[in-house]
């Protein structure tokens, strides 16, 4: 099968005409999404209501945060001068449009799966679960342990459909002069964390598994001031920083650091980030989910083969006003992430029943859940 044949086979045609951009007029949602308890969130985090927009017939539609992908959409990115053209090819003749767009020095995104995608940034810490469970979002990006806890404690009807990172990014991090390189070194030390039960259980578990006294560790809730709590000397170490973000950030600022992973010291390996969907979506609209996973898989292949170009697209489209990205830090982050998103033993988006069962057992033993959910209730592998 030729490249063009594969190209056409992957397409899903959409007869609807391009409707351009959605209006920016939003109304507050009158129907609240019931929040899902999140044991991994910091205490007293603000919860926010989901918002919706009204169409011209007065019906409510979900609020788009990013322009939906139609057949051809051109969007100029504020402050960058960069234009991104999203094209949904419907025939071989579209190759001319794609070529002309590229020659015009504009970035082209090919929507081969025929998906209309709205990306919403959650306002509350657990919106990814709550909105998916309530049918207000089709897919969420969240954490493995939270899905287990939500199903075990509240029977929230959501499942993981794919693992984004095949191992933990969460680390025990400290300045190098503290000489903390293993759990035993934490005895008598002060450890900063974001006030989560999960972080407490991780520290307790690695200490117990390695013959150290967990009661000798002073756990201090520093909220999200993890890096500054170390650099100012308020704590000796932290748990909750990510190896792909805080490590290159601190090194860029001139700090020498030590770190180790909890799963190297008795904690089961877990997925750092999973895509989740509702039971209803999985049962009744699995083709859309499969198309989404195929698109993610294709994007990951581009990320592997053209890392610098993909990173540049991210930098060109960053939300600089609210979350500015440092090119050097993000480049280091890519170098760290790539070998963790796919390994020799695990392809990107793959997940195993064994990993889920080990984490269910560990959470139960640590008292994080009162009962064990079945693995089939927290994950499903879709053949995409």
Note down, in words, how this protein is organized.
Helix content is 33%, strand content 16%. It is built from 12 helices and 14 strands. The chain has helices spanning 3-10, 94-103, 127-133, 144-154, 197-209, 226-231, 246-252, 279-284, 286-305, 307-316, 327-341, 353-365, and strands at residues 27-28, 51-54, 60-62, 72-76, 83-87, 107-110, 140-142, 158-163, 170-175, 190-193, 218-221, 237-242, 257-260, 274-278. Helix 4 crosses helix 12, helix 9 (286-305) packs across helix 10 and helix 10 crosses helix 11. It is globular.
Summarize this structure as a short list of keywords or feature phrases.
12 helices, three-stranded antiparallel sheet, alpha+beta, D-Maltodextrin-Binding Protein, domain 2, five-stranded mixed sheet, 384 residues, 3 domains
Order of helices and strands: HEEEEEHEHEHEEEHEHEHEEHHHHH
Structural class: alpha+beta
Strand tally: 14
Under the CATH scheme, the architecture of the largest domain is: 3-Layer(aba) Sandwich
CATH topology group of the largest domain: D-Maltodextrin-Binding Protein, domain 2
Determine the strand fraction and express it as a percent band: 15-25%
Helical content (DSSP H or I, runs of 4+): 25-40%
What Rg is obtained from the alpha carbons, in whole angstroms? 22 Å
Mean pLDDT reading: 80
Considering the protein shown, what is the CATH homologous superfamily of the largest domain? Periplasmic binding protein-like II
The CATH C-level class name of the largest domain = Alpha Beta
Instruction: Please state how the strands of the largest beta sheet are arranged side by side.
Output: 11-10-12-9-13
State the end-to-end distance. Answer: 19 Å
Structural domain tally: 3
Overall body shape: globular
How many strands, which pairing sense, and closed or not: the largest β-sheet? 5 strands, mixed
- Low-pLDDT ranges: 2-31, 41-84
Instruction: Please give the count of helices.
Output: 12
């Amino acid at each position: 099968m030729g490249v063009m044949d594969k190209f056409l086979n992957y397409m899903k045609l959409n007869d609807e005409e391009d409707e351009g951009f959605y209006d920016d007029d939003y109304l507050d949602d009158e129907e609240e999404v019931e929040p899902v308890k999140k044991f991994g969130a910091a205490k007293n985090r603000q919860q926010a209501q989901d918002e919706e927009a009204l169409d011209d017939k007065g019906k409510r539609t979900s609020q788009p945060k990013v322009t939906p992908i139609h057949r051809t959409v051109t969007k100029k990115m504020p402050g960058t001068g960069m234009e991104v053209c999203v094209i949904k090819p419907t025939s071989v003749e579209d190759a001319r449009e794609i070529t002309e767009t590229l020659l015009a020095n504009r970035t082209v995104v090919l929507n081969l799966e025929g998906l209309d995608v709205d990306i919403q940034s959650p306002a509350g810490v657990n919106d990814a679960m709550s909105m998916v469970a309530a049918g207000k979002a089709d897919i969420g990006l969240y954490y493995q342990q939270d899905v287990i806890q939500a199903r075990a404690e509240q029977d929230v009807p959501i499942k993981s459909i794919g693992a984004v990172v095949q191992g933990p990014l969460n680390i025990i991090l400290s300045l190098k002069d503290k000489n903390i390189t293993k759990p035993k070194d934490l005895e008598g030390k002060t450890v900063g964390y974001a006030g989560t039960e999960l972080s407490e259980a991780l520290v307790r578990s690695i200490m117990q598994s390695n013959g150290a006294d967990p009661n000798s560790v002073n756990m201090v809730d520093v909220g999200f001031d993890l890096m500054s709590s170390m650099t100012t000397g308020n704590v000796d170490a932290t748990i909750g920083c990510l190896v792909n973000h805080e490590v290159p950030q601190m090194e860029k600022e001139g700090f020498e650091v030590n770190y180790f992973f909890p799963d190297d010291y008795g904690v089961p390996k877990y997925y750092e980030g999973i895509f989740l969907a509702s039971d209803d979506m999985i049962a009744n609209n699995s083709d859309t989910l499969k198309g989404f996973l195929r698109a993610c898989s294709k994007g990951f292949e581009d990320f592997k083969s053209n890392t610098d170009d993909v990173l540049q697209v991210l930098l060109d489209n960053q939300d600089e006003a609210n979350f500015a990205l440092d090119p050097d830090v993000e480049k280091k982050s890519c170098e760290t992430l790539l070998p963790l998103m796919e390994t020799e033993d695990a392809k990107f988006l793959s997940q195993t029943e064994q990993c889920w069962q080990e984490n269910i057992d560990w959470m139960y033993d640590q008292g994080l859940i009162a009962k064990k959910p079945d693995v089939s209730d927290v994950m499903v592998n879709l053949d995409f």
